[in-house]
Amino acid sequence: MKSREVHLNAYLKGDPRPENYSIVETDVPAPGKGEVTVRNHYISVDPYMRGRMSGIRTYVGPFEIGKVMEGGAVGEVVESQYDGLKPGDFVNSMFGWREAYTAPGDGLQKIDVSQLPPQAYLGIAGLTGMTAYVGIKRIIGLKEGETMWMSAGAGAVGSAGIQFAKAMGANVIATAGGREKCDFVKSIGADAVVDYKAESDLTAAIQAAAPKGIDAYFENVGGTHFTAALNTLKQYGRIAACGMIQRYNDAQPAAITDNLTFIVGKSLRIQGFIVTDHFDMMGDFIKELSGWMAAGKITPAETVIEGIENAPDAFMGLFSGRNTGKMLVKI
Amino acid sequence: MKSREVHLNAYLKGDPRPENYSIVETDVPAPGKGEVTVRNHYISVDPYMRGRMSGIRTYVGPFEIGKVMEGGAVGEVVESQYDGLKPGDFVNSMFGWREAYTAPGDGLQKIDVSQLPPQAYLGIAGLTGMTAYVGIKRIIGLKEGETMWMSAGAGAVGSAGIQFAKAMGANVIATAGGREKCDFVKSIGADAVVDYKAESDLTAAIQAAAPKGIDAYFENVGGTHFTAALNTLKQYGRIAACGMIQRYNDAQPAAITDNLTFIVGKSLRIQGFIVTDHFDMMGDFIKELSGWMAAGKITPAETVIEGIENAPDAFMGLFSGRNTGKMLVKI
Predict the structure, then answer these.
(1) Are B35 and B103 in contact (CB under 8 A)?
(2) Alpha-carbon gap, residue B72 to B94, rounded angstroms
(3) What does pTM read for this prediction?
(4) What domains sit in chain B, N to C, each tagged with a CATH number?
(5) Chain B residue at shortest CA distance from A271
(6) Please, which pLDDT band fits residue A114 given cuts at 50, 70 and 90?
(7) Do B264 and A256 touch (CB under 8 A)?
(8) A109 has a chain B CB within 8 A of its CB
(9) Chain A: residue whose CA lies nearest to B275
């Protein structure tokens, strides 16, 4: 069996471009003892991958040049020499941007596709949803009746987090870029939406949407959003810093206006986090999410691009905001 | 009895200047029933007071224009109509920048001057020391063997914090401005000292002093110090944000280099705090401090300016770094 896969050609500075990636065709070996061959149905492209393309070690190491890029993928077992999986079963892996692969069966997570479509395990019921849940529940510690600002509200984590925060009884204001995305954010339950592309003064716009201030800010963007959050947070406000996508492609650090003294003046707490440090919450997450889904409180949202050859394009689209909800590549 | 006191003439923008303050002579009434008259021996001038001179409400309200400025002071009871205090007793009050006052006795804290000099209650054994303790013990949660960077190491909170962190078994690097202050910081136990005025690249200097990185940063300065801290903190690093004195006198926010993405990439926790929210730790603090002092681990450090008429000058000196240790005005 043949499989096409995506390789990184060199570490990046600045915006990712098509020439940074190669599509390479490889042979998929037949499974040996204990192995299975899987044909992927969906792969996940995520903003955090930009960090791994820089060659710098942060919370995960860099991608290897000239090898397939790792990342979440769901697929169907097509051949098995492993007792725990049979053809037709669906599995979740981190084997990344490729059409098919052969791997030991005991390293794969079997998923139940009777209640949810397979790609939900890359989105609302996967690391994306879990990231929103950890940020809101543990890092912020959001309480019923509080007001939270979700940035990048039309994105994968943002659209999940808006719905989770509403399900927890909070008041949610969200930012998104452009009319279409703002309409989407409204449709999934945000109490107020600010189109940051239409506002020259983001602080004033957030203050208008939340006249009493915000208790918490879920950070996916950075830059001017972060500055506006410090301006509008109440005393003892909390920030869950999940990502700062506005900065990931900057070859040089930018200068921003320094209002950091609000950290002292308002006794703010700002905490960066990575979902993989909080897997102890997985059981709680699945249980609470199942309840919300059964009650009809959650609408999974996704943008689907077709074909492995378009995976780099889908990834680059994350930075120009081409997705509403989770960005997926369908194989 | 007459008392001279210091009034604020108008709310400030930018650097405090002598013309912002007036020295006013008033009559101190004889004590009524339940009251005492106190002659102050020392008053405290502190960086946080700059915020109260701006007319903006942060964690404490602004000073009142044309009234005596509030603040910590220790003095001796000279006349008493209150059963709990007699002439010769020493008390701690927040009645501020004046030579003497009459007030209800039950609002004053009697202090024990048999073991410590009265002014220690404005410094190492008072809110200053407590601030350092809360920041290190609760906000950072410093552990034995970890490396902490104390900024403004020659200052009141800094010099207390260096000694507390050493007593807790940590490795401490400190920054201070100029040879004399750096020598002082070394003399109270810092393992390494960086003269930030002599370094053009503070990040490189901190990296040289702590080649494996720092686990924690105690923030008193802001600006370039904060930037260098984000650069040098290890994964899961913590910042206790106590003050950002470099910024307090800025009439306009400054632009700084944005390396805030490290908050995400290194899962950092940054927390602003004000000591008055943590008075539940007072008992632990006094107990632990007494043990350290009995073991000879602590050297209280202070800079003393004489005369109430020089209180504004002493206050302004905080921002040009004229103090080592706690800045006090002796009456």
Answers:
(1) yes
(2) 4
(3) 0.85
(4) 2-122+301-330 (3.90.180.10), 127-277 (3.40.50.720)
(5) B269
(6) confident
(7) no
(8) no
(9) A267
